[in-house]
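Marked as duplicate of an earlier ticket. Keeping the data here for the record.
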Amino acid sequence: MSGFSPAWLALREPADHAARDRDLAAALGRAMAARGESVRVLDLGCGTGSNLRALAGLLPARQDWLLVDHDPALLGAARAALIAFADRAEARGDDLLLSVAGRALSVAFRRADLADGLVPLLAPAAPPDLVTAAALFDLVSEPWIAAASDAVARAGALFYTALTFDGAESWTPPHPDDAAIHAAFLAHQDRDKGFGPAAGPRATRALEAAFLARGYAVAQAESPWRVGAGPLQDALAAGKAAAATETGLVPAERVAAWRAARAGRAGEAVIGHRDLLALPPG
């Protein structure tokens, strides 16, 4: 899977946290409370630990987290960011013991290639209560989603994912090439990111179907970014233009003109995402 820089993840984190659907996150908190005061969490493609920072305050009093990413630089950045985030932090070998909002967190870090699947991460002796990820599943393939949901179901874990791109997007003020650039961007989304052809905007539907087929109760909700003029909007426009250029579906001069028109402009970009919660039967 192509990498993401700590700077990009830091830039997007406030928008990510603001976009998450509060009702679905609260439902996750209630479901996890039913598991008791101590829970185990597996966070896939953890980046710099943003998902932990979003969820820790919603989960029970004692939390054991395993943060997994393929990029050792991101795991190092996650460690540093979580130390800064916590009310108190203590290193215990390679792990961290954190105090966050009155909760005690034990955090372990593991470098792993998720293309190998989830089975190696789901230890039968101590299966997670929750498997979670953020901004991940539009990058993986539909067969990978099916295999991952099967592994989660065999472990009997809850599943929660946030901020999966759903293909909806709008920019204001409008530009004549918005539709062409967006179509090229969607074509780029479908490319193989290391897991086979990416599910892209189809990912949430694939997740829902996979968990329903395994007897889970599934709920989903919209979690769109609403991004005003500023560094994040500019970075989004730059990334979208770069992806469109790579496809060759829109002449380079038109992409450049669209990018120039978006640079530093007032207005809003609305980028569609969806959150999903799947609860095991019984």
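See parent ticket for discussion. DSSP finds nine helices and ten strands in the chain.
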